[in-house]
Amino acid sequence: MIQFLQNLIDAIALGSIYALVALGVGLLFGILRLINFAHGDFITIGAYALIVPSADVTARLLIGGWPWPVMIPMICLIVVIVALLADALVFRPLRRATSPTLMIASFAVSYIIQNGVLMAYGSRPKAVDLWSGANTQVLIGDLRVPMLQLITLAVTLVLMTALTLFLKRTAYGVQMRAAAEDFRMAQYLGVRGNVVIGIAFAISGILAGVVSLLYTTQSGSLSHTMGVPLALFAFVAVVVGGMGSLVGAVVGGFAIGLIVTMLQAYLPPELRAFRDAFAFGFVILMLLVRPAGLVPARSTFERV
Amino acid sequence: MIEPYVEPAAPGVDRGLTNASELAADKLVVRFQGLAAISDVSLKVQRHEVFGLIGPNGAGKTTLVNCLTGFQRPTEGRIILGGGDTAGWSASRFREQGVARTFQAGRLFKDMTVMENVEVTAAGLGASLRSARKHAKAMLGWIGLADKAALHAGALAYTDQRRLGIARALVLSPAFILLDEPAAGMSDAECEDLMELVASIPRTFTCGVLLIEHNMRVVMGISQRIHVLDGGRTIAEGTPDEIQRHEAVLAAYLGMEA
Prior knowledge:
The complex is a heterodimer. By secondary structure, chain A is mainly alpha-helical.
């Protein structure tokens, strides 16, 4: 029983990370119909911004060495700038393009970022000790919970609440939801499309920046492809949750976290190497039963 | 029957030509690949009237409304708002400058609440959220949806969706509102309620109404002037009395030879 609870906590912590990444992907999909595979590379950028650019194996902290009230906003700011640049240089000229074109463009952005990182930092993975104190364990009853998992969960809840409040309680948030539902109608009613899209990119940048900090603290290493599996799992989470629904993205993120963790824990050892194949098998089953996702968005498929 | 409109204690938004007293089409021609949908139509909607636009199916009514709101570029002729030419304006520019419209298909934001549907329009036009909310509240009170403000727009009954479409167009008092068959598919009683509301718009909001409506009796009842299209051409314009006796109109509607 204790073991199961322990696994459950692992699942929730992993699910939180996937949920945050999925929110960033889902937000842009909702408004732009862009499936942004470069989102994972936004996370990579945030992580590499922590260290001094060099090809050395041992990384020296740059921004990562600053006190964290300065470091966190700085990392987020850098990722936001990258996200806004990607919009301005790549996606804005493609505003009238179809969804598949946008997705392919996002692959291009993804490879450009990965190779940029490769040039500046070299190809070898780097060890980074961002905050080793976070790996101390907290005892809750008989459960040993790494502090970082509690922090991850808390940060996820805070960000989701903040995003919800933004979408419901601010003028731009309401306009963003209108644009997500019917972009052309919203534009007709005075909503400024490029402003709303810019804000969406900025928010996805903030989410990516936070994830890069949480993820780097947890893994303790950097590589130029570190964001790719995150973006892939987040994309699957968005599909499982229901394309175009933010609640769905979050639910999907937690569902994927749960599936992956439980498979890791309960698959027979000789099958564990194929964990991801089993996980994606589950996803296929889930989509056969609920093709529109767990929390389908009404507006996505009705659009004429 | 109609709730009074309570002016909200919130600033409106200054917009260019909201003082325009007239929305006019001047010698309008619209051709789709050589086929004329509108041929040489001129009309003027005044700020203080309900102006009926009628005609059989395919007469070009919706095309005309699309021109008057910037959704369709005229092939020839001009749309004039308050004496100024509107050449090259986008639909959202028309909206900003005080020409609002509703759509036959509704086009509501179904996943958002009734309140938010109206709110977002006011916010899009530049009001702060606080002020947008006050304007939306006042508008919903007038149109009779105050008690449904928190529902999702997609959950509203059909007639209420129609009302919401009008509320969304009317918020922050445009100078003109163009209603494209607002009562389509309604029962007689529902239609009468709605038309009572429409008839009161010019007085309440100092906003001119152009009304497309199939039900002749309804249009006759609330319009001060009526313009009749058939096959993209003007066949008559005048007061309801004049139109009812107009031979060409009777022919177009009843299929009688004039």
